[in-house]
Task: inverse folding
């Protein structure tokens, strides 16, 4: 069960902290079965209700999970163990294709925008009680959302896409609720959901996004929310097309109580049209981050949705940070107004590298996927071996374990700093790395 590890404590908080410390230290392995509550209570000399409260706290923190009569176990990937810990460092003198970051050469310079923001702030410093969204930024945001077919709704800002997603989930869900999440999908999101005490129901994806039958299965299994990456899906590059969106919208119309959240972090780096799913169910939201197109350090994401959802998000935000810095808002408004980023040119630049790598791998008999965005996903038979062989060849790629729940193994290759001229050589080493060693069997 727990092996040699001894849980200690006489209060619920102490017992929970003891279990969490064991998980963090690696002394309680993923999947380790915790003692039944009455048994642990007898061992510690406390009331079973105290242990029950400790286990409830651990579930809400995403450390353990409970499966009826099968008892409580340490999660396969506890919230205290972030998927980012699976990052692979490039060898000395090697190349890093594992990071998932945009190309710095395609990000706009910020000096002029920040100077303009400073001037605006000097003219009228932000004070408590000011509108949390700068009017000209709000106007530009609403115009862009309307042009992309996003239903009209209130507007809020968050400190990045993940912050916005967390606020939407906590506005409606409670620990123990199930969330349908793309698999493979964004590693940070796969960490966030269990950290909130929510259960992940994996949804298979293809190049068009979530598969309708997989979404239907997750809803039938009790999913109270569905998270969808509209385009530039991480890690596969999937993008929801018109036909797939219509099928998903028809399915969701039959389940109006499901919360639907569109993540449009690919805005500004993808030239494929947006096909949002919001507006079919009672509660929905769409998140549009500026990180990939304008710079991760701007920490700003737009959020729209139904009035109830946005009212809850904004109300809770007022009790926390209050608002997203209006200085940053001024800078983003300036970047938008000045046309500092040409979305068509940026998207084509990424597409040339991505398409070249997918095509080169296909010529070498290797299936790869990357319809949009910064990454190429390569399914493999032996994920660990492929990553190790690429490291030996001087290339760091992201192991698929960072992005998977139940889907098959793979590797993610970020193309943002890859020159087209480098593609043939990279394709050669990838093809060699993903081929099973001679005599190996994967039965």
Result:
């Amino acid at each position: 069960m727990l092996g040699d590890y001894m849980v200690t404590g006489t209060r619920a908080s102490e017992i929970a902290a003891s279990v969490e410390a064991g998980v963090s230290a690696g002394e309680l392995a993923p999947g380790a079965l915790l003692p039944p509550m009455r048994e642990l209570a007898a061992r510690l000399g406390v009331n079973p209700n105290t242990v029950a409260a400790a286990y409830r706290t651990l579930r809400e923190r995403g450390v353990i999970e409970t499966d009826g009569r099968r008892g409580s176990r340490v999660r396969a990937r506890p919230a205290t163990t972030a998927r980012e810990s699976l990052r692979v460092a490039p060898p000395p003198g090697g190349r890093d294709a594992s990071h998932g970051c945009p190309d710095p050469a395609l990000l706009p310079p910020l000096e002029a925008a920040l100077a303009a923001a400073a001037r605006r702030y000097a003219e009228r410093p932000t004070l408590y009680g000011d509108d949390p969204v700068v009017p000209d930024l709000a106007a530009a945001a609403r115009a862009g959302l309307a042009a992309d077919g996003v239903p009209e709704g209130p507007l809020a800002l968050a400190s990045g896409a993940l912050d916005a997603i967390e606020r939407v989930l906590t506005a409606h869900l409670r620990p123990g609720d199930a969330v349908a999440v793309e698999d493979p999908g964004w590693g940070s999101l796969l960490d966030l959901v269990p950290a909130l005490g929510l259960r992940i129901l994996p949804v298979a994806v293809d190049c068009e996004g979530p598969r309708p039958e997989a979404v239907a299965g997750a809803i039938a299994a009790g999913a109270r929310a569905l998270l969808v990456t509209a385009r530039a899906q991480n890690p596969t590059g999937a993008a929801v097309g018109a036909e797939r969106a219509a099928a998903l919208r028809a399915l969701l119309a039959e389940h109006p109580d499901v919360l639907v959240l569109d993540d449009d972090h690919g805005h500004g780096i993808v030239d494929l049209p947006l096909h949002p799913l919001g507006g079919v169910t009672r509660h929905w939201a769409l998140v549009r981050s500026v990180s990939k197109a304008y710079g991760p350090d701007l920490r700003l994401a737009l959020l729209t949705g139904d009035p109830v959802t946005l009212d809850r998000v904004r109300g809770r935000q007022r009790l926390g940070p209050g608002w997203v810095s209006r200085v940053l808002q001024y800078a983003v408004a300036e970047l938008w107004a000045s046309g500092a980023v040409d979305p068509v040119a940026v998207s084509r630049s990424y597409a040339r590298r991505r398409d070249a790598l997918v095509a080169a791998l296909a010529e070498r008999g290797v299936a790869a996927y990357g319809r949009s965005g910064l990454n190429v996903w390569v399914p493999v038979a032996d994920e660990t071996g492929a990553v190790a062989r690429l490291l030996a060849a001087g290339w760091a790629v992201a192991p698929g374990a960072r992005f998977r729940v139940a889907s098959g193994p793979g590797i993610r290759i970020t193309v943002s700093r890859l020159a087209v001229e480098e593609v043939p050589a990279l394709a050669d080493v990838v093809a060699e790395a993903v081929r099973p060693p001679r005599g190996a069997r994967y039965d």
Notes: The first strand starts at residue 64 and ends at 66. DSSP finds 15 helices and 14 strands in the chain. Confidence is low (pLDDT under 50) at residues 438-443.
